[in-house]
Design a protein that fits this description.
The structure is a single chain. The chain has five helices and 26 strands. By secondary structure, the protein is an alpha+beta fold. It has two domains: 374 residues, no CATH class; 63 residues. Strands 4, 5, 6, 10, 11 and 12 form a six-stranded antiparallel beta sheet that branches. Helix 4 packs antiparallel against helix 5. The longest helix is centred in the first third of the chain and has 25 residues. The N and C termini lie far apart (106 Å).
């Protein structure tokens, strides 16, 4: 009987190890399913790694795969460009800092991208560099006029990162996909994005998207008013932190155009900077992106009322580094210290930051049937994304106007002269009496002087009011 119980216990223990191993093994990869082209195309993306542990101070790899689950038989598909980014996950100071970036595209012009089909899946390996983050730190000491000062520049270790709250690596993968049907001349584009975290133990954790916000839209007319293009910007992130990595979905579609006109988005550029009304961080740029076709003979992204331009902008967190020090010295004794740090979200907010300023410019290539070459038109947008995810327009910097400044008027300030004079006289006589061992008289006079101070302050402030300061006018 005892042998049977021992055998059962051992079997349960082994079964537990097997279950645990399968759970760990099962969590060492993640996958996402995407549907595009009005549900006609289904794609599967899968991510894994050859490394069991994902220490941030060690090099590692990410295996990236995309395969087609279903698509129309007359549709050809290519990966025009794939961008993979690695960010620090966790910790107030380093969260959102970009660690590494890779883009995969064809390096020749023989076709527009990497062809993939039901039988041919797309595969790439992202070799991720280790964190290379240095800090400057120093301290000094002086005793009896003899001093010592130590200053060092050191690289953050894995323990340093753990102590700063870092928990893993966040991965953002963006795909630009070219699609063309048999009867079409031009490739049109779709964009997809996957976002997940790889913990230190090598387990993968998908990041669930939040509720899609409506965002902001603009209408533009080009080609002498014959073409109307709508640009739309939105996100599914609830808190649009300045130091967090985040995404912005950019769409452009044609509302109206002559049927004989060919339109291409030849180039799109977007800048992200810190939005603040005042302070030293106002307007500080911290991220940008350019989008264009990288290979092949097609000069841009084809857009029509049917096919829209869509891009996902992965915005890295703002990198603001500060050096802070303090010291104290009394006669021949003293101490001082110096430290470098990356500004946290709270630090930027305390310095006036309120959100992210986004500026976008499109180069639109236009050609008529009787023309040999494309000519160019431009459309631009400017708007603010506040930390709560609210979008507001910023045409001509209208949202960046500083708050009104006011000047305080003290109409009764002269009433403080008399109690001020009494205060000075009582304070002088009181200190003299207190020094001559007439303590009681001195204390009374000093008390009267203190009371007169408050009376003088109250008299000066009585009836004060503020008036706005008029800005200078150009003569």
């Amino acid at each position: 009987m005892k042998k049977c119980l021992v055998a059962i216990v051992l079997a349960l223990v082994c079964l537990g190890f097997v279950i645990k191993a399968n759970a760990i093994e099962g969590s060492r990869e993640t996958s996402f399913t995407h549907t595009i082209e009005n549900g006609n195309i289904t794609l599967l993306t899968r991510y894994s790694s050859n490394f069991e542990k994902w220490d941030l101070t060690e090099n590692k790899d990410l295996i990236i795969q995309m395969e087609i689950i279903q698509k129309p038989a007359n549709a050809a598909m290519m990966i025009e460009n794939m961008v993979a980014q690695a960010f620090v996950e966790g910790g107030k100071e380093l969260d959102g800092k970009q660690l590494d970036i890779m883009d995969d595209k064809l390096h020749g012009d023989w076709q527009p991208g990497w062809y993939f089909d039901i039988q041919y899946k797309y595969e790439e390996i992202f070799l991720i560099q280790a964190v290379d983050e240095n800090r400057l730190q120093g301290w000094g000491l002086m005793i009896f006029g003899l001093g010592y000062h130590h200053l060092e520049d050191y690289r953050l270790t894995e323990d340093h990162l753990k102590n700063r709250g870092v928990t893993g690596t966040e991965m953002s993968i963006i795909y630009n996909i070219f699609i063309k049907y048999d009867n079409e001349e031009w490739w049109h584009t779709e964009s997809l994005m996957d976002d997940f975290v790889v913990n230190r133990d090598g387990t993968f954790l998908p990041i669930q998207s939040g509720e899609v916000r409506e965002g902001i839209k603009f209408n533009h007319t080009v080609e002498n008013g014959t073409v109307t293009i709508e640009t739309h910007y939105y996100t599914d992130i609830d808190v649009y932190g300045i130091t967090d990595n985040k995404k912005l979905i950019i769409e452009s579609k044609v509302l109206e155009q002559p049927s004989n006109l060919t339109l291409l988005i030849e180039h799109m550029h977007v800048d992200a900077s810190i939005f603040a009304l005042t302070g030293d961080v106002k307007g500080k740029p911290y991220s940008y992106m350019d989008d264009k076709t990288h290979t092949g003979d097609q000069p841009g992204f084809y857009i029509t009322p049917q096919y829209h331009y869509r891009e996902i902008y992965s915005i890295q967190g703002a990198d603001e580094y500060n050096i802070e020090g303090w010291g104290i010295m009394i006669k021949c004794w003293g101490y001082d210290s110096l430290e470098e740090y990356r500004a946290s979200e709270d630090n930027l907010l305390s310095r006036g930051a309120k959100g992210t300023d986004i500026s976008v410019a499109f180069d639109v290539a236009i050609k008529r049937p009787d023309e040999t070459y494309f000519h160019k038109d431009m459309i631009t947008d400017d708007f603010i994304i506040l930390r709560n995810g609210t979008f507001i327009t910023n045409w001509g910097g209208e949202a960046e106007k500083p708050p009104p400044q006011y000047e305080t008027i003290y109409p009764n300030a002269y009433n403080a002269i008399y109690p001020g004079i009494v205060c000075v006289i009582c304070l002088a006589i009181g200190l003299y009496a207190w020094d001559k061992e007439h303590g009681t008289i001195g204390n009374i006079l000093i008390f009267i002087a203190v009371v007169c101070i408050f009376i003088a302050i109250g008299a000066a402030l009585w009836g004060s009011y503020q008036v706005p300061i008029k800005p200078p006018t150009n003569q």
